[in-house]
Structure formats: C-alpha cells, structure tokens
Specification:
- This protein is an alpha+beta fold.
- It has one domain.
- 23% of the residues lie in helices and 36% in strands.
- It contains eleven helices and 14 strands.
- Strands 1, 2, 3, 4, 5, 6, 7, 8, 9, 10, 11, 12, 13 and 14 form a 14-stranded antiparallel sheet that branches.
- The longest helix has 26 residues.
- The two termini are 38 Å apart.
- This is OLC1v1022190C1.
- Pfam families: DUF620.
Length: 446
C-alpha cells in the first residue's frame, strides 16, 4: 500500500489542481460558455460544442489575417495583441486536444452477459442462429483471449479490479483548409504544428482504476489541465476545469483507453456482441489482420442526441484489427459523425415531440466527423496476461457541410501514450471509490 500512497502524492504535486473539485465534462469538445457564464444552468448546455465553434472561429481569423498583421515590425500594441492571440489560440488548442483525446467512450455498451453477471464469464457459444459474420468475429475473439492468456490464466479468474498508470504526450499538429476559389480547389494550412505551448507537445500523466462490472475512473493531467471521468455502473460522468459536471448521454459505455489493450476481457466482450461483424482482412503496417466492426444502433444514437438545439449523433462505428500472426489487438479505429446547427437559436420553435434528426428540412448545420486511430503494441506479461504498454493515437476532426463558405476543415492531433504500471486486485479498492460527485445529479434527470 506504500506504492499507492506514492501514486497519490504524485497527483498532488501540482498546487493548481490540489483543491480542484471532482466535476466532469461532456462528451466531445467542451463548452467555453460554461466558464464565461458560471451561473448558467447545466441543463441548458448544447452538448459542449460552443468551444469547438470558438476554436474554428479563431482559426478562420488566422486564415484571413495578412502576414503583416501577425508580425508588425514597430508596433508594441500589435506585439501585445499578437501575444494575446497566441495565448488564446494555445489555450483553445489544449481544450480541443483534451476534448477529443482525453477520455472518449466506445460506441456501444458492453453486452449484458458481462455487465449483469460476471466479468470473467465467456461470451455465449457460437450457434447456427447467429450470422456468419458474427460467428467469425466470435472465433477471432476466442483466439485473442487465448493469445493474451486471459482465458488460461488461473489468477485472473479471481480478479475483481485493476489499476494502471502511464504518461501521455499530446500534440496539436495542424489544420488544413480546402476551399473553392474561382472554380479551383485551394488548400492552405492554418495554425502551427506543436502542442499547447511548444512544438514537442504537452506531456502529462494519467491513472485508471477499474472494478468489474462497469465501474471505472480516470484522472489525466496534461499541460496544467486536469480531466476526470468515471462510471459507477449506472452513470458515466466527465470533467474539465473549464466546464461543470455533466453526465454522458445514452447507454453505459466503456472508456476507450481501457479497451485499447489494458483490459483484454472488456475488449473481447465489446467485439462479441450481436453488433459484431467480421469485415474481412486488412494489412496494418507489417501485419495481416482480421477486421471486426461494431456500431451503435439508431436507438442508442438517438439517446445520445442533445435535441433540436444541440448536437445530433448520426453514427458511431468502431473497428478492431487483430493480428493473424499473434492474435493480439494491434490497431483500434473509431469514426464519430455529428451534426451541429450553425445557429442553435433557429431550433427554438422546433416541435420536440415530432423531431427527427434525419429529416432533410432542418435548420442550416455543419457536420463534424471525428476519426481516432490507435496503434497498440509493446505487450508485456502481467500476472500471466499480456497487456499493451505503448501506443500512438492520431485523431482527425473533419468539418464540412457549410454551404455559405464552401470550405472544408481538417484538424489533426496526436497522442503518444505509455503504461508504466499495471496492478490486478488492488487492496482496499471498493465500489465507494467510484461514487459520482454530488453535483452530477444537477445535470442528470432522475
């Protein structure tokens, strides 16, 4: 237990975060307006998309500003303004990084046979009533469990919880803008390659605690910002320093960081549900892989929508790439398409009872497609189970559909992550460790 005390002390070295309350954030980019208007009711939030709107407005200003405006040779006021703009951009870049990369969730919940019963129960047996694509996915996952050692290790059959700690390096790469000018497509790069304050990115660290079934907690500190997320098996909540407490909408979904090589059983369970389909084969680097797809159905997608005035999730798909040579998961990719109104006020008079986000006669909107791809490797033995200890995640946010400007924006960001410590069956960890903060109920209807 001494090492646990040292881990706790590690998180308290930053005085700016020592007294921060445990309050969570919404899925997707976070809401700057919540910081500017602390008295605003959390239930009025439009899904956290105001921050990403502000971020792209800043990028547009940089795109149209002449070079002389960026570096005036003699004006002190221009220099001060440039520094202020740089600071504002850096702050917004970090918020975008954390909003996309810090704690994304998987597209679908774990199957009931795991969440309702025992974490170590195997997926249901293959039978003739299951489509061949799903049967093939089940077979591949059985090989994956055997490859990691989870299905053969005697110790993990008694495991009730786990802990992992590691480091991250997040980098905002660049934003590319494509536009139509005089009948020709013109491409330009906006922003600079680097992190929140430097070209090498922002370094940080994180801890993950998990107790099966369905309980987990994440703390991540990067660039002076602390992000917290968690689940008590009934509700998922998240937090950033500039946003209040919010619950994630829709069904209970697992943390993406856990399924990218940290917890083989949760990964296996996610890819053996009714939604799992084997999509064939694909080569990733030097490895030939089997590809398994899972996607959120329309009912669960509708549950995650913020209504007419907010963001509407169109689809959310996850692909797992399992090596044919080793049987291990070596790449994870998910794509998340969301529709956001250009002017949310235009939706005030929409009939909520007959609202259909798939209708063609809605208010003007833009579409955001977020694609996150994670290379997973450096598998090491931990109590007889192979756990991934290193990886690289690249996220791309693609903005399109705005007819007035005929512009397409593609923003790229990256995270390098390393796991330094994994422990199964942490003494003293209980369900009380995953109780949501009290103010979560202010934003979650009873």
């Amino acid at each position: 237990m001494g090492s646990r005390g040292r881990r706790k002390q590690r998180w308290c070295t930053d005085e700016s975060h020592h007294h921060q309350p445990l309050t969570p954030l919404m899925e997707g980019p976070d809401d700057l307006e919540m910081q500017l208007r602390p008295d605003r009711n959390k239930k009025e939030s439009s899904g956290g998309w105001d921050t990403i709107r502000d971020w792209f407005r800043l990028q547009k200003k940089c795109a149209i500003m002449p070079a002389s405006d960026h570096h005036h040779p003699s004006s002190d006021s221009s220099s001060t303004s440039s520094n202020n703009n740089s600071s504002s951009n850096s702050r917004q870049d970090m918020r975008l990084l954390l909003g996309v990369l810090a704690c994304p969730l998987a597209p679908i919940p774990l199957p009931h046979y795991q969440t309702d019963n025992n974490h170590h129960q195997l997926p249901p047996p293959i039978n003739k009533h299951i489509p061949i694509e799903t049967c093939t996915a089940h077979y591949i996952i059985q090989q994956y469990l055997a490859a990691t050692g989870w299905s053969t290790s005697k110790k993990v059959k008694e495991v009730k919880n786990m802990y992992a700690a590691g480091t991250v390096n997040m980098v905002y790469r660049q934003t590319e803008v494509s536009s139509l000018e005089d009948g020709e497509v013109v491409n330009k790069t906006v922003g600079r390659s680097g992190g929140g304050s430097g070209g090498d990115g922002e370094k940080g660290c994180f801890v993950v605690w998990a107790m099966w079934p369905g309980r987990w907690s994440l703390e991540l500190v990067v660039g002076g910002n602390k992000v917290v997320a968690g689940s008590d098996s009934k509700i998922v909540w998240r937090h950033t320093p500039w946003l209040g407490t919010h619950a994630a909408k829709g069904p209970l979904r697992p943390l993406r960081r856990i399924i990218q090589g940290l917890d083989p059983k949760s990964t296996a369970s996610l890819f053996t549900g009714k939604a799992a389909q084997c999509m064939g084969e694909k080569r990733i680097g030097e490895e030939d892989c089997f590809v398994i797809k899972v996607a959120a159905d329309r009912a669960s997608v509708m549950e995650r929508n913020d209504g007419p005035a907010g963001a509407e999730v169109i689809r959310h798909v996850l692909y797992g790439y399992f090596s044919q040579r080793s049987g291990l998961l070596i790449y994870l990719e998910d794509s998340h398409l969301t529709r956001v109104l250009v002017n949310p006020q235009e939706a005030i008079n929409v009939d909520h009872r007959n609202y259909d986000p798939y209708a063609d006669d809605l208010a003007p909107a833009v579409y955001w497609e977020t694609t996150i791809g994670s290379s997973i490797g450096d598998y090491r033995d931990v109590d007889g189970v192979l756990i991934a200890h290193r990886g690289r995640t690249v996220a791309t946010v693609f903005r399109f559909g705005e007819t007035s400007s005929q512009q397409y924006w593609r923003t790229t960001m990256e995270e390098l992550w390393t796991i330094h410590d994994v422990v199964f069956d942490v003494p003293g960890l209980s369900v009380d460790s995953f109780i949501p903060p009290a103010d979560i109920w202010d934003s979650h209807p009873s």
